[in-house]
Design brief:
Elements lengths: L1 H29 L1 H7 L4 E6 L6 E2 L5 E13 L9 H8 L3 H13 L1 H4 L4 E7 L1 H10 L6 E10 L6 H4 L2 E3 L2 H6 L8 E3 L2 H5 L1 H4 L4 E7 L5 E4 L15 E2 L4 H10 L5 E7 L4 E8 L10 H9 L9 H4 L9 H11 L14 E4 L2 E4 L9 H7 L2 H12 L7 H14 L21 H8 L23 H12 L3 E2 L21 E2 L7 H13 L19 E7 L7 E8 L6 E7 L9 H14 L7 H8 L5
Length: 607
Amino acid sequence: MEVNRKNKLLIGLTAIALILLGKLFYIQIVNPKYKIDASNNSMVYNYVYPPRGVIYDRNGETLVTNSTRYDILVTPREITSLDTLALSEALGVSVEFIREKTAYYKKYRSRIGYQTLTFLKQVNSEAYLRFAEQEFRFPGFKAQVRSVRDYPFNAGGNLLGYISEVDGDYIKKHPEYRSGDYAGKTGLESMLEEQLRGEKGYHIFLRDSRNRVQSAFAGGAEDKEAVPGKDVYTTIDAHLQQYGQILMEGKLGSVVAIEPKTGEILAMVSSPGIDVDVLADISKHYREIASNPRKPMFNRTVMASYPPGSVFKLINGLIGLQEGVLEPSMAYPCYSGYYYSGNHKLGCHAHSSPLKLLDAIATSCNGYFCFVMRNVLENRKYGSISEAFDKWREYVLSFGFGEPLGSDFPSELGGNIPSSDYYNRIYGKNRWRFPTIVSLSIGQGEIGATPLQIANLAAIVANRGYYYIPHIVKESEGVPLDERFKQKRYTMVDTCHFENAVQGMYMAVNGGGTAGATALAAKIPGIDVCGKTGTAQNPHGKDNSVFICFAPKDDPKIAVAAYVENAGFGATWALPVASLMVEKYLTGEISSGRKYLEDRLLTTRFY
């Protein structure tokens, strides 16, 4: 028994030893990866940075490409002598700059060790050539090729976004990056970072005992080629985007254009925005941009929460039809330009009275839609106003309001649609009624919506009741389109009711609309346009101007929302912005009879 135990123990120990020896043989002889890892202290990695992918518009216009720059690198421990004057002349920097840098390297010599640091970023080809001719005179210094972003088309700094060098916090969250790497921080550059960045390559060199670079490791067999980033096609129409920026210059707000049949975003303008001329070197201009009180870095299209104003009446009318408390033939009065609800007196503008649904949409009657929403909330099939209100809210959410739409653009916010719990907390349970929230009837009060959501409403009406989630990346080779962008999303209102909204919007532009002749300015020769004005009250100054439209009426190819802050009536400023965008997209030019609208926008600035 004793012998058997000893034999078993001996066999077991022998087996373990053989396994360990085999593993050691594999690590040291067979697999060079471990040898490379273990020898890192005697190796130098020269990284090769790939060009980022090119960004195109929907028609193949180049929005973002690359140009070549050079970083000057330094390994302080390898500096044996330095002619500061010659180096300053070669690089085009001051002698003081070089002395400050070298003083820093001496002070932190032990901390830096044998690291290679970036001495000077993004020098141009002329400076690089001067340096390259004399590089032998500057031991410890070398150049590294980098590509920087170039913008041949001025089409949306906020939309495209910028890249910048990663910091410690970014590296903690993304350990695949290292100091000196660049990454997209905002806009499309951030959203598409994984596709655009490519993969770094490297050349491995051996050091001797004195830390001098001697030769390529393994004859270059373990070097890695850089893999360029993938090119990306967007849904943006570069010329339409640029035109929208021109129209919105000097104005606060946003204009968004969507192709209703696909949900593809054709233009997405936030004004004021970041000019593409500063994107390539954003760090140089960042402080100035960030301190601008008009917040050009704030992307209003997806982040601003505005009261939608009268364009929201379309939703309340459609909910009334679906709930069976409204028929298109029903007429409601507007008493002397006012709607009275308890102690509330809500004003309206001059128009005939009483009105039926289509005329109420066309003239944007406040009183009419107050009657409609009151009927929705006081519908006896619900046990309480809270129950009816939550059903109303459910309808509104189905139109894409109250939460992010889920677009592929980063930082999208969802606005706000209040709930019954919200009012219960403020007024007490069952202690509020329709007069308390009457302003929701006309898109005011606690309702908040982004311009993207408002544009999506125009697309929903254009499609007669459904939408595709708005998105900005087009499917292309190596860049698939997420399935969620291919699915139709229907509202809770039956599609049969939407023709009423379409016809009312058509009447608003083609006769009988708000502000009469002013609204007729949305008409485009040879194209049936449907539109709806909105004037949203603003507690911080003059009213906001809102307009949504789509065209052509029976085969919609574009839906637009324009939102101009502190600009007054919707028909005055937002309307011409949106209608000119439609005409530019569908015809390629502005007709002579409508040039005055363009001229007025181009020569008017609100700041």
